[in-house]
Structures are given as structure tokens and as C-alpha cells.
TrEMBL record:
This is DNA polymerase iota. Interacts with POLH. Interacts with REV1. Interacts with ubiquitin. It comes from Cebus imitator. Error-prone DNA polymerase specifically involved in DNA repair. Plays an important role in translesion synthesis, where the normal high-fidelity DNA polymerases cannot proceed and DNA synthesis stalls. Favors Hoogsteen base-pairing in the active site. Inserts the correct base with high-fidelity opposite an adenosine template. Exhibits low fidelity and efficiency opposite a thymidine template, where it will preferentially insert guanosine. May play a role in hypermutation of immunoglobulin genes. Forms a Schiff base with 5'-deoxyribose phosphate at abasic sites, but may not have lyase activity. Keywords: DNA damage, DNA repair, DNA replication, DNA synthesis, DNA-binding, DNA-directed DNA polymerase, Magnesium, Manganese, Metal-binding, Mutator protein, Nucleotidyltransferase, Nucleus, Schiff base, Transferase, Ubl conjugation. The chain holds residues 5 to 476 of 738 of the full protein. Its cofactor is Mg(2+); Mn(2+). It catalyses: DNA(n) + a 2'-deoxyribonucleoside 5'-triphosphate = DNA(n+1) + diphosphate.
Amino acid sequence: WVELEEEGCGNEEDDEAWAMELLDVGAAGSLQGVHDQVLPTQNSSTRVIVHVDLDCFYAQVEMISNPELKDKPLGVQQKYLVVTCNYEARKLGVKKLMNVRVAKEKCPQLVLVNGEDLTRYREMSYKVTELLEEFSPVVERLGFDENFVDLTEMVEKRLQQLQSDELSAVTVSGHVYNNQSINLHDILHIRLLVGSQIAAEMREAMYNRLGLTGCAGVASNKLLAKLVSGVFKPNQQTVLLPESCQHLIRSLNHIKEIPGIGYKTTKCLEALGITSVHDLQTFSSKILEKELGILVAQRILKLSFGEDNSPVIPSGPPQSFSEEDSFKKCSSEVEAKKRIEELLVSLLNRVCRDGRKPHTVKLIIRRYSSEKHYGRESRQCPIPSHVIQKLGTGNYDVMTPMVDILMKLFRNMVNVKMPFHLTLLSVCFCNLKALNTAKKGPMDYYLTPSLTTASHSGKRSFKMKDTHMEDF
DNA sequence: TGGGGTTAT
DNA sequence: ATAACCC
């Protein structure tokens, strides 16, 4: 996909068509075969995508840890919020992101467990992704509890195993959206049904091997798969056949329910008088492009019709590790340092277990302010190579230099001679590299991604330079 | 609102 | 470095 970004011809539609072709060639066989024969595969643009969505994930993990919680209304608490809860609790009126006090009023029997430490959730989350990767390596994570899998190839292979008289015996697994009739003479139907069978196998494997239940949605793209996965809710699955696509997308009550249309875009659209999916579908594309920019406008307009050509991008290992803590008030440098040290201890453990080395560290703060939605500030800098070397070696005095760096970043953001009031601190390790690519030598210049790519593409160049310690 | 993540500008 | 998006 990186290559597509850098070598596309610049025209949106052409890039898309070309991208689809190239993906199909890759999907059809070996990537190394790309140069021998570049022939477009049959069925070049109809995919089978599954969206897998775990039921109240954190609560499930807690119930597995402590089975006594299983038949009780359970909420997972972070600070003063119930961030998620099991279905027992939902029946009694507890909602996601509900204030703890309100939740207790609604449901005095509610059992609360603290979920501020994400370690066990993160570990279980990756076990799910890895299980799904056994089916097909093309798995994209969305948060800790959702995954997309591109089943196109698997479905093709299963169909090739079938005799022609077996095609008419293919059955659906789970629900069919809108109770639509299946047409076994329609190859698109057949492919989606096979997708639904694979989805059922995935859910079975998740339950048998990890003890987790969840929903799945099968459709021809990510948007539709995601929307349809939520139609029958706990622990069920639904397949969307093409004829019911418009029914699904128009069943949404508000444009903000379309994934990809977030807070800002919603506000902007509402200002234009657009609230329903139908409003958006029929709105002038020219005006939309002027208000939101051509890229966003064209993308969300397509989304409103249920069209989404974005590929399932394998997530692979994480791009960053971060730990954050929020609080009512932090107003001294000494306290900030203590909090940063705590975050750092957990982070160093995580980075050590990962094996790769972060080459950049970032400090993020949130200042107390009357009302500023999204008030985070950050400073980042490269991690000195001698510190990187010590990072996974069990040498725990990587703490001292890292704290020094972070406190410099801190003082660069916060004038400690003036009163301040912070409500959040976060430390992030990013720019992860497999091994010590920082070896000296004449070749190093050509092997450093930031320099190589920046020099002939422009796409990956750093527009902002990291703060360097020498600047202080 | 929490404690995470991603990509684009 | 920030802003948008996702959970």
C-alpha cells in the first residue's frame, strides 16, 4: 500500500482502480510473481470482508479472570467512569461511559472492577488478532476489540474445492440482513454465504480457545461489514447481501453513526442542515467539497451510499506504545516527575517485551482549562542511541537518562516558574525499529528510511523536526 | 468522559 | 506538533 501511495498517478479514480488491480494480483498469488504476469484477476472488485466485534470486551476479560463475576452486573471503571459493562448490567440500565455515581444510583448492586491498567485487555486483544490471522493474514485492528479480515481469497479457495453440484447446497451461517432471500444462482450471494461460514468458524475458535464471545458482520466492504455486525447484538452474526445495502445505510438515524464521520465533520454537516443519511446522499457535492475539502467530501459522500473501497490493511505489530494517567490536579514539577516515572516503568517493560526499539519519545500533557475540547500539547525528541542500546538489555538504569529527557521536554512545554495546572500526563514511545539500524558506516545514509524516502518521494519526509536536546 | 490507538496535514 | 478519526 505504501507503494501505491507513492507511485499512484495522482488522479483519485485512476489510483483506486489501479490499487484494486494491484491488490488483486497480490491476493491471487505470490507477491514475487507480480513482475512475471500482471493480469487482472476475475472478480476484480468484489471482496468478502468480515468485521469481528467482541461483546463488552473489558467486562468479558474480567469475568474470565474472576468467574464469580459472571452472573452479576459488572462494570469496568476508569477514574469516575464506567467505561463498559456486561449485559447483566445493561439490562439494569447501566450504559457505556456512564458516571459511576449515576450508574450506582441506577443499579446499586453493580459490581465495579478497576480497568485503568490495560495490560490484560491488550494481551487478550492481540490473542484475538493472532487467532484471526490464522484464517487469513490480512487482519486490521480497530481499537482493542474489533478486527477486519479480508476473506476474499479464502472464499475463492473454498469455492474451488466445491463441485458444481455442491454450489446449490451452500448455506448461510447466522442471520441474513433484512431477511433477504438468498439466490444460490448468484455468485455474489454464494461468496458471502461462504464468508458467513468462515465468520462462524472464527467465532467458534474465539470461544473454544479464548473463551470470548462476539459479533461478526460479513459484507463486500469494511463500512458495510462493520455496520451489519451490530445488527444482532450479543454473540450473533449477520451477512449483508448486496440488494439490501441501501436499506442498511438508510436504517441509520443520523450521519454521525457512519464510521468515518466524526465529531468535527458532524458539526460541520449539521451547520449545512445535513442530519440524515439521505440528506447527505442528495447534497450538492460541490458545496460539500468547498466546506470540507475535496478529499473528505468525496470520501464521506461515498460512505453515505455504502461505498468504501479502503483496503483491509494488516495492522502488524503496534506503531507506538503509550501510557497515560489523568487526575484532578498536578501543579508541581516534583509531582509531575513522579507521575512520569510511573508511566515510564510500565512503558519500559512493554517495550522490553516487544523486542523492537523505539527511536522517539514523546510527552503529552493536558492543561486544566475552562472549556477547551481537545487541549493536548506534546513535545517529542529522538532517543539518544546509547540509551536505545540499553533499552531491552535488562539494564534498568535506562530510567535515569529517560527521565532526564522527559523532564526537559516537560520544561519545554510548561513554564515551571509560573503556576500551572495539569490534568493529564502521557508518555509515548514511537518510531519503532526492528533492530539497531543505527550502525555506523557509509551505507547508513541510504538505509535510513526518513532520508531515503524523503529524498525522492516527499510523502514520508518529516515536515516538523523533533526537538533536539541541544536546543535547550 | 478514559486509556488507549491510527493516519493526514 | 497538531488535528482528525477509531475503539
